[in-house]
Design a protein that fits this description.
The protein has ten helices and 20 strands. The protein is α/β, with parallel strands linked by helices and about 425 residues long. It folds into two domains: about 160 residues, FAD/NAD(P)-binding domain (3-Layer(bba) Sandwich), CATH 3.50.50; about 200 residues, D-Amino Acid Oxidase, Chain A, domain 2 (2-Layer Sandwich). The protein binds flavin-adenine dinucleotide (FAD). Flavin-adenine dinucleotide (FAD) binds next to α1, β2, β14, β18 and α10.
Length: about 425
């Protein structure tokens, strides 16, 4: 079958890989000069197969209210005269209740475990190099109550050998000696030994090359202008350079999908949740961690990517403005160096921003739309790197008309 994949972020690229391996004639269209150069470029690097949960949780409204006027707040809603933003924010808040949160968490875990298995299969099959580490992730807690509550929460979920170890700071430092200076800062940690870390951009770039090797065509530097519709069927796309026909079109345009789909009458509640990262070179220094780290009070994640330390965080609902707010990104750098003073040279840090493509229930949209030939694999929000390979496998199964290997409840486009 002739298939077009729109967007070469980590999501479009993994979809293209599985579709190509299925024997389809695949063309990927991407406006950037290479794969993984927008939101998939410098994310937190955590493959959080078991710890990911929806951001729309019952504690969020209180946190938002408490931090309403704080510029360095981890969550910041800058409401603007933008109907789409207000509609999204209301839907997101309506998901901040116990029942939708529990539902979303089930979906996250199902997709997370499946994606983890697919990631392992892809890297074994293709020998993809991406500064991967399989040392686990440490969640740091400031006080004994929040540590105990988080442990109790983790234990409510089925174990499957994945329940965390509860560590005091002495044991945490034995696991991750780079935390030595934090002995008195935190009460302890949860150690999830099976989580991994890795560079999403390297993975995407190298997987795109492998996919080309399997016969796909990646058209870089082409901007999509519209979907071509013939009655109830999508028959192709137009770009600023050419027209392409196809029997199936998979949309993986991150935060930019809704604008594009609206013109053919497909509504998709995805809104950009801006975040930042800093990347500090570690060469010549010996104080950077090797485990994934999640500093729960500061809501930042850190991962060691070869000779770099990446730290990412903050969530800003502020539309499509790509400006980097110095105060917010500098706070992340300060936290990195506070945690790991000997990790590297902060004056060499690279600052970055990305738009997380968030759905109001914080789980992606994977499946067929009401229009024949039009499929969605998008809306992966804060966890797209983790969920990429599973999503790619699932959309390839759906395009082929095969039964996906996991229950798709909670992921289907029709839920919105
Ligand atoms: C600060 C931050 C930290 C994060 N940390 C983690 C983490 O630790 N672990 C994790 O699992 N996830 C993390 N994420 C989430 C993850 O990075 C995203 O979910 C993921 O990158 C989304 O991938 P995507 O392919 O959907 O979007 P993108 O990577 O943005 O890809 C979409 C592509 O579509 C292209 N495009 C858009 N419009 C057009 C057009 N008109 N024509 C042609 N091409 C177009 C874009 O150029 C882009 O390349 C983080 C995100 C951020 C911002």
């Amino acid at each position: 079958m002739r298939v077009l994949v729109l967007g070469a972020g980590v999501i479009g690229t993994t979809a293209a890989y599985f579709l190509t391996r299925d024997g389809h004639d695949v063309t990927v269209i991407e406006r950037q000069a290479g794969a993984g150069l927008e939101t998939s470029f410098a994310n937190g690097g955590i493959v959080s197969a078991y710890t990911a949960k929806p951001w729309a949780s019952p504690t969020v409204p209180k946190t938002l209210l408490k931090n309403l006027f704080r510029e360095d707040a981890p969550y910041l809603f800058r409401l603007r005269p933008d109907l789409q933003q207000w509609a999204w924010a209301l839907k997101f808040l309506s998901n901040c209740r116990a029942e939708p949160f529990a539902r979303g968490q089930k979906v996250s875990r199902r997709l997370g475990a499946y994606s983890f298995a697919q990631l392992k299969a892809v890297r074994e099959a293709e020998g993809i190099e991406y500064d991967a580490r399989a040392e686990g992730m440490i969640e740091l807690y400031q006080d004994a109550e929040s540590l105990a509550a988080a442990d109790a929460f983790a234990r409510r979920l089925p174990d499957d050998g994945r329940h965390p170890q509860v560590l005091d700071m002495k044991s945490t430092i034995e696991v991750e000696p780079a935390l030595e200076d934090q002995r008195d800062t935190y009460a302890g940690s949860l150690f999830f030994s099976q989580e991994e870390t890795g560079d999403a951009h390297k993975f995407t770039k190298n997987l795109a090359a492998a996919t080309v090797g399997h016969g796909a065509d990646f058209r870089y530097g082409e901007t999509l202008t519209r979907l071509i519709r013939d009655g109830r069927r999508i028959t192709g796309v137009e770009t600023d350079k050419a027209t392409y026909e196809a029997e199936a079109v998979v949309v993986s345009l991150g935060s930019f999908g809704p604008r594009f789909l609206r013109r053919v009458g497909v509504k998709m509640p995805i809104y950009p949740m801006k975040g930042y990262s800093v990347t500090v070179p570690t060469a010549g220094h010996n104080g950077a961690p090797t485990h994934g780290i999640h500093d729960i009070p500061r809501r930042i994640v850190l991962s060691r990517l070869g000779d770099r330390l990446r730290c990412a965080g903050t969530a800003e609902l502020t539309g499509y403005n790509p400006a980097i707010t110095p105060g917010r990104v500098d706070a992340i750098l300060r936290d990195t160096m506070r945690l790991f003073p000997n990790a590297g040279d902060p004056s060499q840090a690279e600052r970055w921003m990305g738009f997380r493509p968030m759905t109001p229930d914080c789980v992606p949209i994977i499946g067929k739309t009401d229009l024949d030939g039009l499929y969605l694999d998008t809306g992966h929000g804060s966890t797209g790197w983790t969920w990429s390979c599973g999503s790619g496998r699932l959309i390839a199964d759906i395009v082929a008309g095969r039964e996906p290997e996991i229950d798709m409840t909670g992921l289907e486009p029709a839920r919105f």
